[in-house]
Amino acid sequence: MQSMDNRYTHSPEDIRHYSTEQLRKEFLMERVFELGNIQLVYTHNDRMIFGGVTPAEVPLEIKLDKELGVDYFLERRELGIINIGGPGFIEIDGEKEEMKNQDGYYIGKETQHVIFSSADKANPAKFYISSAPAHHKYPNVKIEIDSIKPMETGDPLTLNKRKIYQYVHPNVCESCQLQMGYTMLEPGNAWNTMPCHTHERRMEAYVYFDMEEDTRAFHMMGTPEETKHLVVSNEQAVISPSWSIHSGVGTSNYTFIWSMCGENITYTDMDMVAMDQLK
């Protein structure tokens, strides 16, 4: 089974008077992983598709030819994958590879079949995927967690000591516009990306996970002069428009996958926001 929800774009003026319910409806994906199903969101912010593929007994394949007006899903798109569940497999145009927890993959355009499966339905793989339009075919690259040396940044004094794992990134593999990575906060730390920033040239999506049932993350969004927030629980995802800040604080440490697409692939291309600008 496969479902895809369409989310349209909004200006900062649009959300000024949104209720909590409306803000959640437009920017939050409440259920990313559902056993035996593919759950996707198509956001018109730079036309990113993101979501979860959770195979059980039967392998799963994303089918979006009619929705995208193409013959097959990746005819004009590229794809990033990170497995945050149990061990699984992906089969790429007939070639099958193992995907353990935290392993990732970049798959270039014109790849006709990507089939997802779990090694054990009692401990299913949870493939988080992000896809963006692509103009050029770059090689498929498996990104094993054991091969990534994380960037260590932040400070316990500001509650934001964390490790950043770059997956789909110029330091790791070529892509058209997709970037994707994994940020893990150290125990006792709660903030990510603070001081915050915007990047008008790229949108972003987050999925928060590795959270206990009774913990929450407060995802900050909106313009620096008029901030809003979403309360996010484990394995929920958020759309972040290019004009919005995107920062978060948790009731405990957590992990999240970030994915970006837009005008460029310069990771450091951001507009920093001074603390005295935030309201």
Automatic annotation (TrEMBL):
Keyword Isomerase: yes
Highest taxon listed in the record's lineage: Bacteria
Keywords, sorted A to Z: Isomerase, Metal-binding, Zinc
Pfam families in UniProt: KduI (PF04962)
SUPFAM superfamilies in UniProt: RmlC-like cupins
Pathway where it operates: Glycan metabolism; pectin degradation; 2-dehydro-3-deoxy-D-gluconate from pectin: step 4/5
Binding site for Zn(2+): H197, H199, E204, H246
GO biological process assignments: D-galacturonate catabolic process; D-glucuronate catabolic process; pectin catabolic process
Cofactor: Zn(2+)
Gene Ontology terms for molecular function: 4-deoxy-L-threo-5-hexosulose-uronate ketol-isomerase activity; zinc ion binding
Cofactor: how bound: Binds 1 zinc ion per subunit.
Entry's EC annotation: 5.3.1.17
Reactions that this protein is recorded to catalyse: 5-dehydro-4-deoxy-D-glucuronate = 3-deoxy-D-glycero-2,5-hexodiulosonate
Family note: Belongs to the KduI family.
Role summary: Catalyzes the isomerization of 5-dehydro-4-deoxy-D-glucuronate to 3-deoxy-D-glycero-2,5-hexodiulosonate.
UniProt-listed NCBIfam families: PRK00924.1 (NF002091)
HAMAP family xrefs: KduI (MF_00687)
UniProt name for this protein: 4-deoxy-L-threo-5-hexosulose-uronate ketol-isomerase
Organism: Listeria weihenstephanensis
